[in-house]
Specification:
mainly beta, 17 strands, about 15% helix, about 35% strand
């Protein structure tokens, strides 16, 4: 069965997964699925791990359909950039210069507001901030209006397990590579296979996925922000 047909079925049924060579794709219909950001528990203690997030939700009568890490974090596990959960900004937009992937401009913000999901260049966020339900800032942008980030090298030898998010209409595609890939290869997957015009890199090396339907329960380093669909 072709990849495009699988993804079309996933979008039609609201939430599904499509298994692709080298990538796992979790489409989220933001009109129907309860997509949320997570950082800490009711005592303000970082949740750190995807499995602990599931355990924390269970006494509340909720479960995770899927979850993954949702952006870069400081040594204390606080977000490096913008973090908005349940309509409340907990960390401000970061437009500073610096070293590392987060600061490889243009970087960007994934958000869900009244007009659905978007991936935007970071400096565009303030004009869209009103009514935003959730937002996480990371970097670099993988795609901006269909164009691959200008700093990505097609001949790069830097390969990591990577995860990111792209948007097409009301569907947000959360993707993790099953094998180490370059940033350039990752961007092309969003553009050419998922047909997204805008996509954001969330992180690499520490990337993990919690997906019970796939019997996948990744564990690894402690995490900062996490994102997932709750039932």
């Amino acid at each position: 069965m072709k990849a495009g047909f699988l993804l079309a079925l996933a979008a039609f049924f609201g939430f599904a997964h499509a298994r692709e060579p080298h990538y796992t794709v979790m489409p989220v219909d933001t009109r129907r699925d309860d997509l949320r950001l997570f950082l800490d528990d009711e005592r303000g203690q970082p949740l750190h791990r995807l499995k602990r997030l599931e355990a924390w939700l269970k006494p509340q009568g909720k479960r995770l359909r899927f979850a993954m890490n949702a952006g870069m974090y400081e040594p204390d596990y606080s977000p490096v950039g913008l973090y908005v959960a349940d309509g409340r900004e907990r960390a401000p937009l970061n437009l500073a210069e610096g070293e590392g992937n987060f600061y490889l401009k243009p970087n960007g913000v994934f958000l869900v507001g009244a007009d659905g999901p978007k991936v935007v260049e970071s400096s565009q966020y303030p004009a869209l901030a009103a009514g935003v339900r959730l937002a996480t800032q990371s970097g670099p942008l993988l795609l901006h209006h269909g164009t691959v980030h200008p700093r990505f090298d097609p001949a790069s030898k830097s390969r990591q397990i990577r995860n990111g998010v792209g948007v097409r209409g009301d569907i947000a595609y959360f993707v993790i590579s099953d094998n180490p890939v370059t940033l350039y290869e990752f961007a092309l997957y969003f553009r050419d296979t998922l047909q997204c015009s805008d996509a954001l890199y969330l992180d690499g090396a520490i990337s993990g996925l919690y997906a019970p339907a796939l019997r996948r329960y990744d564990s690894g380093p402690k995490l900062g922000p996490m994102i997932g669909v709750v039932e």
